[in-house]
Design a protein that fits this description.
- The chain is an alpha+beta fold.
- Helix content is 38%, strand content 25%.
- It has five helices and six strands, in the order E-H-H-H-E-E-H-E-E-E-H.
- A six-stranded mixed beta sheet has the order 1-6-5-4-3-2.
- Strand 5 and strand 6 form a beta hairpin.
- Helix 1 crosses helix 2.
- The longest helix has 16 residues.
- It is globular, with a radius of gyration of 14 Å.
- The chain starts with a strand and ends in an 8-residue tail after the last helix.
- 28% of the residues are buried.
Length: 138
């Protein structure tokens, strides 16, 4: 199965905000998306928590525990800029592995408290539901 990365309109808007406010982070997101679109091997790694220290930029896939415990198949992509510093944002994405799709739901500030911000969490869950990713049983 071929996997695809889809940027939601909300995440695209957040990406444009990054372009205006944080060029190193914006460049890293663009480069990651390019690499994921060009490499099926790399995009397949998005489902399993791990660190790709050899990548450029380096990234780490982490389970989004609060989302997973509520039936949302989401991960957090922690990444570094092309200059090697920790990026100011994280990529939050939903996985629809049966359809071969990964939806970028949000490009959120690293400082956001993902587990304790009910409004932000509800918004990301709405985005997940709006793209049609089925809930999972845990």
């Amino acid at each position: 199965m071929e996997y695809t990365i889809i940027l939601t309109k909300e995440a695209a808007s957040e990406l444009l905000h990054l372009k205006a406010n944080d060029l190193p982070c914006f460049a890293a997101v663009i480069e990651l998306l390019r690499q994921f679109r060009e490499s099926q091997e790399l995009v397949e790694e998005l489902l399993i928590p791990h660190t790709d220290a050899d990548g450029d930029p380096t990234f780490e896939v982490k389970d989004f525990e609060r989302a997973l415990s509520n039936g949302f198949n989401m991960r957090i992509l922690k990444f570094y800029t092309l200059q090697g510093s920790l990026a100011s944002h994280r990529i939050i994405y939903g996985c629809h592995p049966n359809a071969g799709k990964y939806y970028v739901l949000s490009i959120a500030p690293r400082s956001a408290n993902y587990d304790h911000n009910p409004r932000w969490f509800a918004d990301v869950c709405d985005r997940y539901d709006n793209v049609g990713i089925p809930r999972i049983k845990r």
